[in-house]
Amino acid sequence: MEVGSLPVELWRVILAYLPLPDLGRCCQVCRAWRELILSLDNTRWRQLCLGCPECRHPNWPSQPHLEPPSWREALKQHALATRTWTQNGPELQSSACLLFFRRRKDRRVWHVGPGCEFETLRGALGVVGPYDRVVLHPGVYEEQAEVALKVPVELVGLGRLGEVSLLVCMEQQCPTARLCNLVFMPPWFSTVVYKTSWGHVQLDNCNFEGAQLQIRGPGTCQARFCSFSQGSSAHLLGVVLSLLDSCDFSGSDTASVTVEGPPVLERNWACKHLAGLARTFPSCGMSGNNGSSPRGQLTGSTVCQGTVIEDGWSDGEHSEGEEESRDGEKTNTKHPFIMDYKIPCDNHGLSHLLKPRADGSLPLASSPDPPPVTPEPLTLQQELERDPEAQMLAASTLGCILRRCLFREGKGGVHLSNYGQARLEGNVFRGLNYAVRCIQNSTIVMLRNEVCECRASGVFLRLSAQGLIAENNIHSNGEAGLDIRKGANPIIVCNKIHSGLRSGVVVLGNGKGSIRSNQIYNNKEAGVYILFSGNPVVSGNHIFQGQAAGIAINENGRGMITENVIKENQWGGVDIRRGGDPILRNNYICYGFSDGVVVGERGRGLIEGNHVYCNKGCGVWVMSSSLPQLLGNYITHNCMYGLAVFLEGEGREGQENLNEEGELFAWESDLDSEDERHSARRSISVALVESNCMSYNGAVGLYVKSSEPLNVFANLVNSNRGTGIAVLQSSQLTRLVTNCILENVRGGVTVEKDCRVELRGNGIYENSGHGVGFSGNGQIVENDVVGNRGYGIQVSGNADIKVLRNRVQPAQGCGIAVLGPVKGVVHDNLLFQGHPGNKKTLLHMDPGNDSCVKKKNLYFYVFAFRSCTSAPPWVLENPPPRPLASSPSGLSSSRYPSRLGISMTTRISATVESGCHSGSMFCSIL
């Protein structure tokens, strides 16, 4: 009969009455009939699948509201699974006889129940043959002593699940068995209802109520669509391989699943079969990173539109040049004068950081706009391709495999100990004390699970635990999303870790780990919190929108923190305090609502090659009691200072990463010892700021108010809205050496009274105030101070100062002005007039000052000039314009070591050139 003889809709109505065997026969008629039968997927096949008493919804228990890809395929997989308990089984005694019994179609079926051939389960098990089926009719079956399964057998409950209950303790002493549609409750003498130590058991659609399933290697287990409730649990000891699929665990008093001990060397027949099942399972529908990121996209216009420090703010007294700019009309604050005899200084040692690139784009140091984009985290496939160890773990089948299970409302989910091994894929952990606890050299692989609403930490690894945790959604937990301590060293990649009531990831107590390409956001405390000698690798993550710091390193925490995007956090992007000593390299730290990097009390660390920009507070905030090394960072477009060094107790020290002080000591209580807590990576005695670019910040580029020594070498400080460098307090020596301080809205360098400062080998160019305003003690040696709007160098107050071998050309005002009772010497300086309209003396000293000695200074005045002059008359050529050091940002500290001492060229000369045949007329006065 042709399909086309009746409408398709009518055929579907007719075929809806066929039982399963007849539907299978119809599929074999022809291709048209097969397509017609397959089109019944959402009707007849769905009805058959849900109507089978041995089968539950394919997406039960975690996602029963979702339709499977195919109801027919789900029913097919169930039918195949009902037979797999016999596949490849070993033969007992006469293999020919057992093969005949196992494969014959008329294998014996025994019925147990009131009015049946057996009234007790023990009676039926005493007569069954290998691979027979025992059907238990509705009722409660209780045994007063342990029951042994001595031959392969299948126990099936008749009717709906819950109508057949067993109060029994069974021990399997045969190679294989299957139990289906049964409810297990513990007898009076034991909580263990089923155990095996060498055979394979398959559990389908069974309930365990207050009972324990115990599998000991080389025994194996496959459990499908089973419920473990009222404190029930599964204990697997030394298992080689077991598979728990689509099971529901609830109300546990301890852990729902315990995996203990290394896999035994001996393997039973089912291991090969279970490994094949593990590899052919369809991938889970859950994905931790496929969705779009929920983070907001703050831009420079929204974050850095205004500065926290208003335009009227002052870091000291206004320079004369600044005051004059307010009186004049239509004055260009950066270039108030076109200097007729300007000394060219565009080829100084850091000028390569300001020149346009080959494609015409501006480098970061001179761009008025922040970086437009940040790198995206890698996908799991990309991470696996570059990490062979992670690739091996992702492909491995370990001791206990849990797929698509639901763990809810209990104490614990999965507990691994003593070299146990487990693989968790596509499970949901909800409302537990903890989801996963992996300790004592155990190995865990977690792929695409959801871990949420745990009262403590979601995933807890300690005592040298390891494994792979990838593409999980870990959120809304009461403690940390992941807690790593005591030598644990997992690989954590491509997860979403968010909305926690404390930190996203905590690493402490000598914990390690590789934390890469995760999205960590919206946690109440730090996104990643490292303390008590924790030493992880944190790389390529997006850490954003946290309610505290992005990354916090406290209490002697360490770590390698590289190439992360840390943005939009309420507190510091990175917060280092109390002995924290990380390597912070090549990160994007931006758009924060406070400071970019905070180095608080006793903070240390190497901070190198980072992009710190568009933060509401300072770019980098450093307490003077800390000893960081800042090398090669771009600190730009922040609303307050670029880099601020404060006295202890000032600024933002009140911010902490814990809600209550007592909670900090709760972390410490779990440590084995304090032997490694006070170790340091390097011996550092002076904080170092070297080879950084501090540009376009809303206030001072470098602000120093410190009680400790500080070395500031070879930095580019340009285009900041305040002074380039301001030293307001410095009881110990602050060294400012070979820096370029360029085009800042106020002065170049300001040093207040009672400060100790060495200013050596710097290039201070075209700032809108004084080049150097100095009221403290120290020395100003071998600097080039050219083109600044105010005085070149102004020394005032009770300063005790040496001004030696500088080259100074002001745009207007004095070259060097000594005001008040200054002590010291002004020797061997070269002073150049910049404009013939400037009538002020190049070297001014208040009358009556007998305590300051001046001698051997050279003055270059312009008496006449001609319009045909095409080249500047003066050139800084021996040495060339300072700074002389060339230090491109981002070089590693090994390639560009810190300078403990800088040798300066002592020979200074000025070359006089002419643009006309008769030359310019000038006078040199000694």
UniProtKB/TrEMBL annotation:
Region (Disordered): 309-333, 356-377
InterPro entries in the cross-refs: Beta_helix, F-box-like_dom_sf, F-box_dom, NosD_dom, Para_beta_helix_rpt-2, PbH1, Pectin_lyas_fold, Pectin_lyase_fold/virulence
Pathway: Protein modification; protein ubiquitination
Residue ranges annotated for the F-box domain, each copy included: 1-48
Keywords: Repeat, Ubl conjugation pathway
Family matches, as Gene3D superfamilies: 1.20.1280.50, Single-stranded right-handed beta-helix, Pectin lyase-like (2.160.20.10)
GO biological process: regulation of apoptotic process; ubiquitin-dependent protein catabolic process
Record-linked PANTHER family: F-BOX ONLY PROTEIN, F-BOX ONLY PROTEIN 10
Name assigned to this protein: F-box protein 10
